[in-house]
């Protein structure tokens, strides 16, 4: 007997089961086929070393250290400084990994951090760099360390961020350093924190991520504030945080909880490393402990003097007075004076890179809004010019994307072993970059490595720049007073959430209307792999006064999907200042270097250049200003491209099995998602002319709350529909679902036959006004509307600004500045803004809020005139009398459900109450009471109200005439408010 064919649902279920088993088997292969080996033992030894507090000073400060000794020695050494805000425990995991590779590692807490004494001087050559040289002296005295000569250890320096800069500075000042591997660090701290990405000339460098490094930049306020806060706690070290006197024996005291910020147990360093005594990768920092410290306690250092509390009023915390003054200088007005610039230059690796000739591995993150690829690019050029051999790695990470993972740390260890011993093989090519794809496995993006022939521009040759044509005319942009509201491109320290989650991509992106100009390319016909820093030539002119500090602007490059959604790679922004922009409107041409990125722009995607006036992460001038921005000439966007070959990694069978399972699962999910998208955007031709149909709409939330329940109604063309209901009726939830802001639990909404879903194209046919609109007060009403429309990216000729203003009835007031408007005029301007493009469906939430009776009357006329054009208006309001006079139809909701729907007259006229205007009210009341069935007769001036209980009004009028009463007017008594209260109950007042 043959088996029956399985149903489509059963076939789908079997396919899912088979794929699930495949994925489990592939994942299991990772366990079955990868051997586990125990790492070689590592001995640790903790000690407090004393170093001079300052050059030539007899005072001493304590430096807290841990020495990691491999199984075999003597061996080459690695000095391992930590990132800003951390301490020696922050790098414990990496130190142990290097020691397991056979190298002696000295990790330590820099002055001002952890339990080391002194104050933070930002890697000053006379302080932190001099301390590191003393640590090299200590290494040369250790019998476990291999020596190149007396007092000269075989040593490399590696570290990330703050520690990476120390590696560069030490290599440029101490000839005993044999190799360095700095990661995610800076070349010029002034340019990193106060960048200027624009130059009136051309960028001379031929490397792929060269920055303009122009003077007079824009203060990176958010990042600088994070770091200053990390160092603002009470200082460590000796009494009051000052130096230890010579010959004073340090007391065995626990200083780990007296740092007031970074370095405390459980805190995190700003560069992403842990500072709680554990390694950033989760490895333990155990091992044998010598030198008097207690095993397993990160709060003991083996003998540093206790810190004395400082006055809470001291804003400098653990910083030196010089650093504190510099921060106060630039944080006050966003502009650095000469003394601050000199300090930042002094503590920057750029001051010594001309003297670095040792082999250098530069590891820089592609997701780093603090120290971008341009910083490593500059270091590579400078060290190469000095004669040093330079290898470069760009990886998917950084201060916004995470520290190097195990594989990259292993590559760094291989490189150090090769340079220090000469026996290990070189780990690969001199330039490798990583490309993050859209495929995700267990929430982690797919990443592929590409090996290039070399870093372009270091040893001859140039970077290949592809030209991408941009479209867009000259555009007007405004810097609002105080720089608020400001554009949001990302949130320093949280951008990693965006790069690691598709759901959060674009969450932090916001370009306020009127503040940015947009220039967009045509869709790509083939994939374009952007590898470095694109460049563009802009023409900027002032349309009025310019702030004394110059024009401040921000440029960023979006990847635009075919559906119009945008992604800002790495949340990166190029800030630039034009210090001498003429006030007479004469344009200035500048070359702007955009942030360095690695981004595959797929076929069908476009690139969009956005030039704005604000960014919440930067300091901008307080003065209002207006600029015009256009593309200079027809050069377009110059995009760097670095050819390469996929990095070879052999044939890892477990990983391939896992990838195969993931690909199969992705194929299934993609198919289901495509089916859902097709269903979501299917069109009902029979409803193509109907503005709005809601069927069985339900929205439920966790916890059993149902905001909207089985709601159904229909709106026809030309209607003005009033949406009524008490607090909690579900009106706002319904409007949010209509606008595609939230997704229904069940049911559907169709606008002109198209099913509404988040991002549905039909939403462009809806205009909306919710509560209030943010206008720029120093511009006219007409200018505000033009800027708002320009921000939508749609053609100017489709705005219909004149028609919207005529309907709004603002008259000549549209040419006045908005700050002179009354509340009613602002509301009408907001309605005009919602009417731009003359949307076929206009959705308004409380449009008469804050208006007096004359203004409400004017607003009522505005809505009637708009509906008279054949379009449809949906109004949600708590003013029942206004809905009655404005709307043609009403929908009444209560507790999420529909209780009534229909024409206003039908709902108002329901029941049998009537009102009569008469000349003799008392006689009329007596006559009506005498009619059988009539009840509840009341006199109100010349009006007599009565419940006729089914008696025709004509019969009641006849009875009044027979009684000698002159009837001037007769009609239904019921008002919308009466009907509303009867429908929802006396307790259900309007919102």
From TrEMBL:
Pfam family, one: Peptidase_S15
Organism of provenance: Amycolatopsis arida
Keyword NAD in record: no
Homology family: Belongs to the ABC transporter superfamily.
The ABC transporter domain, residue ranges: 692-920
Compositional bias of kind Low complexity: 265-283, 303-313
Domain of life: Bacteria
Name of protein: ABC-2 type transport system ATP-binding protein
GO molecular function annotation: ATP binding; ATP hydrolysis activity; dipeptidyl-peptidase activity
Keywords from the named record: ATP-binding, Hydrolase, Nucleotide-binding, Transport
PANTHER family referenced in this protein's UniProt entry, alphabetically: ABC TRANSPORTER, ATP-BINDING PROTEIN
């Amino acid at each position: 007997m043959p088996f029956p064919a399985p149903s489509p649902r059963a076939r789908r279920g079997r396919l899912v089961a088979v794929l699930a088993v495949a994925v489990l088997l592939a994942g299991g292969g990772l366990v079955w086929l990868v051997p586990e080996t125990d790492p070689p033992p590592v001995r640790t030894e903790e000690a407090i070393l004393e170093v001079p507090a300052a050059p030539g000073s007899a005072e001493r400060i304590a430096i807290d250290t841990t020495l990691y000794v491999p199984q075999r020695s003597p061996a080459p050494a690695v000095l391992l400084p930590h990132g800003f805000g951390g301490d020696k425990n922050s790098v414990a995991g990496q130190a142990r990994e290097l020691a397991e590779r056979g190298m002696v590692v000295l990790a330590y807490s820099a002055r001002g951090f952890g339990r080391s004494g002194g104050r933070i001087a930002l890697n000053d050559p006379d302080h932190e760099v001099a301390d590191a040289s003393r640590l090299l002296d200590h290494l040369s005295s250790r019998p476990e360390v291999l020596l190149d000569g007396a007092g000269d250890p075989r040593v490399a320096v590696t570290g990330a961020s703050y520690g990476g800069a120390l590696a560069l500075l030490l290599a440029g000042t101490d000839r005993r350093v044999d190799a360095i591997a700095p990661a995610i660090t800076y070349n010029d701290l002034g340019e990193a924190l106060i960048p200027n990405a624009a130059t009136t000339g051309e960028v001379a460098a031929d490397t792929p991520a060269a920055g303009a490094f122009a003077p007079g930049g824009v203060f990176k306020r958010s990042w600088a504030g994070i770091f200053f806060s990390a160092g603002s706690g009470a200082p460590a070290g000796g009494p009051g945080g000052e130096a230890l006197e010579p010959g004073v024996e340090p007391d065995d005291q626990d200083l780990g909880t007296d740092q007031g910020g970074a370095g405390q147990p459980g805190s995190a360093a700003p560069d992403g490393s842990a500072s709680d005594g554990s390694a950033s990768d989760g490895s333990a920092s155990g091992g044998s402990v010598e030198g008097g410290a207690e095993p397993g306690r990160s709060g003991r250092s083996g003998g540093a003097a206790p810190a004395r509390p400082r006055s809470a009023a001291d804003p400098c915390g653990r910083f030196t007075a010089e650093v504190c003054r510099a921060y106060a200088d630039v944080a006050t007005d966003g502009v650095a004076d000469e003394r601050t610039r000199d300090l930042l230059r002094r503590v920057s690796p750029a001051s010594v890179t001309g003297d670095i000739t040792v082999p250098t591995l530069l590891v820089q993150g592609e997701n780093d809004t603090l120290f971008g690829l341009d910083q490593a690019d500059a270091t590579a050029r400078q060290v190469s010019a000095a004669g040093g051999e330079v290898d470069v790695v760009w990886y998917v990470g950084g201060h916004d994307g995470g520290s190097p993972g195990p594989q990259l740390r292993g590559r760094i260890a291989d490189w150090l072993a090769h340079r220090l011993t000469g026996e290990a093989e070189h780990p690969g090519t001199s330039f490798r970059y990583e490309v993050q794809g859209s495929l995700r496995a267990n929430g982690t993006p797919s990443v592929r490595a590409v090996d290039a022939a070399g870093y372009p521009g270091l040893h001859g040759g140039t970077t290949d720049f592809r030209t991408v044509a941009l479209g867009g005319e000259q555009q007007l942009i405004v810097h609002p007073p105080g720089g608020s509201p400001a554009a949001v491109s990302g949130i320093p320290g949280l951008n990693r959430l965006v790069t690691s989650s598709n759901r959060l991509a674009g969450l932090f992106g916001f370009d306020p209307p009127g503040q940015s100009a947009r220039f967009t390319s045509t869709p790509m016909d083939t994939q374009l792999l952007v590898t470095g820093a694109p460049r563009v030539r802009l023409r900027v002119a002032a349309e009025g006064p310019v702030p004394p500090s110059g024009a401040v602007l921000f440029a960023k490059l979006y990847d635009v999907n075919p559906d119009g959604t945008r992604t800002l790679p790495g949340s990166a922004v190029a800030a630039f200042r034009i210090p001498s922009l003429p006030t007479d409107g004469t344009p200035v041409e500048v070359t702007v270097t955009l942030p360095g990125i690695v981004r595959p722009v797929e076929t069908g995607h476009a690139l969009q250049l956005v030039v704005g006036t604000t960014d919440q992460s930067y300091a901008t001038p307080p003065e209002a200003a207006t600029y015009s921005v256009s593309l200079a000439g027809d050069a377009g966007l110059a995009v760097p491209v670095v050819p390469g070959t996929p990095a070879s990694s052999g044939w890892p069978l477990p990983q391939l099995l896992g990838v195969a399972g993931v690909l199969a699962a992705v194929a299934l999910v993609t198919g289901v998602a495509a089916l859902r998208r097709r269903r979501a955007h299917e069109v009902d031709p029979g409803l193509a002319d109907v503005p709005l149909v809601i069927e069985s709409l339900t929205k439920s939330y966790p916890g059993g709350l149902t905001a909207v329940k089985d709601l159904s109604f229909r709106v026809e063309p030309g209607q003005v529909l009033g949406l009524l209901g008490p607090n909690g009726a579900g009106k706002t939830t319904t409007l949010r679902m209509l606008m595609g802001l939230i997704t229904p639990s069940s049911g559907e909404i169709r606008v002109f036959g198209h099913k509404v879903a988040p991002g549905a194209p039909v939403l462009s046919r809806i205009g909306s006004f919710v509560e209030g609109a943010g206008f720029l007060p120093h511009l006219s009403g007409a200018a505000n509307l033009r800027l708002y429309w320009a921000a939508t990216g749609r053609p100017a000729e489709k705005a219909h600004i004149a028609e919207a203003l005529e309907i709004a009835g603002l008259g000549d007031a549209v040419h006045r500045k908005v700050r002179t408007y009354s509340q009613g005029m602002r509301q009408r301007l907001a309605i005009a803004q919602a009417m731009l493009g003359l949307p076929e469906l206009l959705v308004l939430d409380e449009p008469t809020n804050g208006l007096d009776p004359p203004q409400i009357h004017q607003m009522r006329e505005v809505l009637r005139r708009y509906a008279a054009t054949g379009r449809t208006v949906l109004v949600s309001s708590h003013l029942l009398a206004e809905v009655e006079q404005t709307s043609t139809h009403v929908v009444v909701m209560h507790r999420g459900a529909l209780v009534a729907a229909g024409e206003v007259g039908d709902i108002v006229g329901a029941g049998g109450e009537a009102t009569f205007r008469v000349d003799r009210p008392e006689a009329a009341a007596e006559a009506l009471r005498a009619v059988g069935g009539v009840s509840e007769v009341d006199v109100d001036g010349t009006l007599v109200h009565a419940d006729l209980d089914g008696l025709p009004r004509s019969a009641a009028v006849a009875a009044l005439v027979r009684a000698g009463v002159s009837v001037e007017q007769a009609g239904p008594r019921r008002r919308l408010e009466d009907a509303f209260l009867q429908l929802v109950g006396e307790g259900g007042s309007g919102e």
